[in-house]
Structures are given as structure tokens and as C-alpha cells.
Backbone:
């Protein structure tokens, strides 16, 4: 059950490769998690990321059932869930926080039930729940970096509208920003970010990977752009130190990364106190 | 109702929200250089009416025609989370599509009496300061239509008069059409051309003085408000200079001494 958490990896020359691949994968995720996490805290949609991550487990199972890569299942399910939630958010009368909770935990439960029925497939459940960055392969890295660059390019091209909508959607609409489109684009990007971050820190800690670096960057930033860049840098450093710690002390990699990010957040609060 | 200079025309607008009728058969026209003030009790649908006018809410029935090319909007509230780092300077610059001229930005902020907050963070502003910044932001867009939802909420009394003066000048000198929600008709009365008294439907509409005596208006706001209104209109046949000296009002023909007609809304019940 615990394989892939970094606990039973033998140490040797090959570990340098492991660690390098893990760093590459973690860096790609941290780079997009920074700015995406900023939008999540600005728009107060932390629970949205959490709901996506929980429902992603169902995507893994769907991927296995359909015989495609689990990550493809995760991306597909995250995108579908994001579209459902975007629609629900537009129609605020439906009580979207309850809907989020139902979608998140309903699909997590269904995923776990289906997983237990599939006895011919062995799934590293702990790896998906808490991340398995040390098991990242070379092809994963290509996908992660390709996805990261795509997400960053879309973010950059939509930046003005995304920031305007984060400030106030009504003002942004009156000023001619395509707010409905920006909202859907953001949700799809977050869905991609969640799918990628799951690989690194797992279902349970995805939201942490998104919002903690952003929150740590807040106190040190005066502009939205500064905060996005600082959040990406905080995430990169947390990945490097977390993986280093995981390697040195044989701790699980995902939780180690999130622990470092949390320390950054606490430090940023202590040092910027006015 | 709609004339050549019409910037905004609503006709027969109906809006319901969660099975609850919020607006019913509302007609409204805003023309260049005219100030339309919407008054009404809480829950009367005032903010919803503005949102329908702006295209932020889609009405269930009726038509909305917007011919204004640039709209400046001041929402009732702006809820910027503390986690979004945003200076007032940047917040203002966002309102104009091309790179903002920083001199004009500073000047506009000065005219609303908030020049000192330019480099502060938006999340740190007080309610009144934020309101002034929002008005500056709307003006920066060089609008031909201003849509203001309680634009002076949270502003101190002296500031309220200044801001209403500023809004009035936009209409009188700049030819800007103004659609405004206000709770204090007695303050805006002198500056308003046309009052719409709203309680889901248009109870009564017309000249401020006429509306203030209208039985529907009195029924909605009670005799106390009406009395304070009467005192106000009688006491203010003069203005004050910067040193507090009494000055005659400019222009002689103040709008509230002309024409006393009012229009009955279809839902008005008299008797």
C-alpha cells in the first residue's frame, strides 16, 4: 500500500535520476500552481479546487475501466466537473457550495467503491491520495511541462480580463471584459492544474499546493503580478526543499513539499507584521 | 418617452428571482444631460433595476436599449478580498483600455476628494474612501452614461454634497446622462430632473417636488421623511461659498420650481 511514498526506495546511483525527474515534475506543477492559486484565493474558490481533486479519483477509476492512462481520466473528469461547476456558479440560486460538496464527496465515494470492485487491477491508492512524485517517468515530465507551458500561455493571454473579473465581475462586464469566457477558461485551467498537482502531492493535498504558496506570497506583494510570480517562486522552493527533505529523512514527498510551503506561509506572516 | 438623445431606454421590464417578482412593468428612459434618480424602500428592486439597465441581469420580459457608448458604473458595494494586492492607482488604471495618463488619474482622484489614497491598497480603504475612488474610476472612463448605485454611501455629509455637486456638473456641463439610486431624495432633489419611485413597479415618477407630495411616495416613506423633505426644499434656496457665506443659487431657474406634473405607474392604487 505504501509503496511510492518514498519510503521503500533503495538508495543508489539511480536515485539521482529519480530525484531529478521528481524535481522537474514538481517545478512544472509549482510554476502553474502559483498564479492559478492566486486566482483561487482572490476569487475565494478554494473549495472548488478541493472538489475537483476529490472527484479526480473517479477519473482515475474511469481511466482504468476504459483502458486509457489514469491521468487522461483525471484530466477528462476534472474538465467535466469544472464545466458543471462553472454552470452552477453562474446560477447562484442553486446553492453552489452544497453542490460542490455533493459532487466532491459523492464522486470520491463512488471512485473508492468502484476501485474496490476492480480486484484484477492493482492501484496504488496511497500514491494517488498523497502523491507519487518519485515514480514520475520521463514521458510524464514531457506532458507536465507541455501542459504547464500551455496553462501559462493561456493565463498570460487572458491576464487583463482574469484580473478584472477577480476584482469585480460586474465592473468587468460593464467595462467590456469577456467575463463569462474568463470564468470558464479559469476553471478549465484550474482543472488542468489540479490534475497535474495530483501527480505530485496527491488528491488530499492538491488544494494546499495551489493556495498555500499564493497565500505566502500575499504579504510580500503590492500588485497581482508580483503575487503570482512570488507564489510560483515559493512553490518552486517548496518543491526543492520538500523533495530534499523527503530524500534525506525518508519522509513522504507530497506532504514534505506542503509542509515546507506551510512554513513559508507562517514565516511570511511573521516577517511582514506591521 | 424616448427622444433623440436617449442613452438608455427600458420598457416593460419584468424580472423575477427564485420565483419572486423583483421588477414588474418598469419603464425608464435616460437622456443625455439629464439626471434620473430612483428612490424606494429596501428590497424595492433598485439595484436590480440598475443591473438590468447595465445588462448584468437579463429581464424575463421587456426590452432594454442601450445606445450609450461608454458607461461608468459605481456599484453599491465592492468586495475586494484582502488577499488581492491592488493599489488604488492600479485599480483606477484598469478602468481605461489604453495606458492611463497618470496626471489625469491623479486629477480625477483629486476632484472626488480622495487624492491622498492614490498609493494605498484598495482593501485598506474606508467605506467612504472606496466610494470616492469608485466614482473617480467611473469618471476616468469619460462616460456618456453614469450608472450610480448609492454613490455616496458611507461618505461624510459634507462629502456627500460635494460628490452630488460633481455628479450634477457631469450632467449639466458634460452632457452625461445619469441614472442613480439614492436613499436620500432630500439631498439629491435639487440636482434631479426626474424621480422614479420604485417598489417593484414604478409607483410614481416625475418631477422631484411632485413625487415628494405623491400619496404613493408618502405611503412608502412615511410623513416624517416627507416633512424633512419639505423643510429641506424650503431652506435651500441658496448655496454656500467655501467660506460659508450665503450665495444665491446660480442659473435662477432651479429645476424644482418648474413643472409639477407626475406620471402614474400602472400599479398605482389611489383611494
Residues:
Amino acid at each position: 500500500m505504501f509503496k511510492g511514498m518514498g519510503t521503500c526506495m533503495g538508495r543508489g546511483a539511480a536515485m539521482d535520476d529519480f530525484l531529478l525527474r521528481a524535481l522537474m515534475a514538481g517545478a512544472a506543477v509549482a510554476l502553474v500552481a502559483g498564479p492559478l492559486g492566486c486566482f483561487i484565493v482572490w476569487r475565494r474558490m478554494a473549495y472548488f479546487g478541493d472538489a475537483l481533486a476529490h472527484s479526480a479519483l473517479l477519473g482515475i477509476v474511469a481511466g482504468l475501466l476504459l483502458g486509457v492512462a489514469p491521468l487522461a481520466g483525471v484530466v477528462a473528469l476534472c474538465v467535466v466537473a469544472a464545466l458543471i461547476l462553472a454552470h452552477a456558479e453562474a446560477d447562484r440560486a442553486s446553492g453552489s457550495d452544497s453542490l460542490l460538496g455533493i459532487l466532491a464527496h459523492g464522486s470520491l465515494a463512488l471512485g473508492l467503491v468502484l476501485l474496490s470492485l476492480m480486484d484484477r487491477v492493482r492501484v496504488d491508492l496511497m500514491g494517488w491520495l498523497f502523491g507519487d512524485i518519485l515514480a514520475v517517468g520521463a514521458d510524464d515530465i514531457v506532458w507536465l511541462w507541455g501542459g504547464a507551458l500551455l496553462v501559462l500561455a493561456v493565463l498570460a493571454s487572458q491576464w487583463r480580463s482574469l484580473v478584472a473579473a477577480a476584482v469585480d465581475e460586474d465592473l468587468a462586464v460593464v467595462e467590456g471584459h469577456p467575463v463569462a469566457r474568463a470564468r470558464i477558461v479559469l476553471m478549465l485551467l484550474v482543472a488542468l492544474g489540479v490534475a497535474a498537482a495530483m501527480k505530485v502531492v496527491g488528491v488530499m493535498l492538491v488544494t494546499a499546493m495551489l493556495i498555500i504558496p499564493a497565500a505566502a506570497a500575499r504579504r510580500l506583494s503590492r500588485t497581482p503580478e508580483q503575487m503570482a510570480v512570488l507564489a510560483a517562486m515559493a512553490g518552486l522552493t517548496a518543491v526543492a526543499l520538500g523533495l530534499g527533505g523527503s530524500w534525506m529523512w525518508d519522509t513522504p514527498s507530497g506532504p514534505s513539499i506542503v509542509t515546507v510551503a506551510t512554513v513559508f506561509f507562517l514565516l511570511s506572516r511573521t516577517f511582514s507584521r506591521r | 418617452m424616448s427622444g433623440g438623445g436617449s442613452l438608455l431606454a427600458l420598457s416593460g421590464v419584468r424580472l423575477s428571482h427564485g420565483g419572486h417578482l423583483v421588477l414588474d412593468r418598469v419603464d425608464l428612459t435616460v437622456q443625455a444631460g439629464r439626471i434620473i434618480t430612483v428612490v424606494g424602500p429596501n428590497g424595492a428592486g433598485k439595484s436590480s433595476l440598475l443591473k438590468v439597465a447595465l445588462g448584468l441581469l437579463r429581464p424575463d420580459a421587456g426590452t432594454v436599449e442601450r445606445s450609450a457608448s461608454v458607461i461608468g458604473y459605481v456599484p453599491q458595494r465592492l468586495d475586494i478580498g484582502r488577499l488581492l494586492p491592488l493599489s488604488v492607482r492600479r485599480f483606477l488604471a484598469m478602468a481605461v483600455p489604453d495606458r492611463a495618463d497618470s496626471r489625469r488619474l491623479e486629477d480625477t482622484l483629486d476632484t472626488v476628494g480622495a487624492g491622498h489614497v492614490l498609493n494605498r491598497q484598495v482593501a485598506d480603504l474606508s467605506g467612504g474612501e472606496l466610494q470616492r475612488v469608485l466614482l473617480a474610476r467611473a469618471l476616468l472612463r469619460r462616460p456618456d452614461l453614469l450608472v450610480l448605485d448609492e454613490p455616496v454611501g458611507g461618505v461624510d455629509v459634507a462629502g456627500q454634497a460635494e460628490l452630488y455637486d460633481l455628479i450634477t456638473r457631469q450632467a449639466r456641463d458634460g452632457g452625461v446622462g445619469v441614472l442613480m439610486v439614492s436613499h436620500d431624495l432630500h439631498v439629491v432633489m435639487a440636482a434631479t430632473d426626474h424621480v422614479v419611485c420604485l417598489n417593484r413597479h414604478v409607483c410614481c415618477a416625475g418631477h422631484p417636488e411632485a413625487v415628494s407630495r405623491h400619496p404613493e411616495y408618502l405611503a412608502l416613506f412615511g410623513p416624517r421623511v416627507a416633512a424633512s423633505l419639505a423643510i429641506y426644499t424650503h431652506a435651500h434656496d441658496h448655496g454656500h461659498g467655501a467660506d460659508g457665506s450665503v450665495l444665491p443659487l446660480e442659473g435662477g431657474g432651479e429645476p424644482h420650481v418648474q413643472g409639477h406634473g407626475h406620471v402614474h405607474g400602472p400599479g398605482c392604487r389611489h383611494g
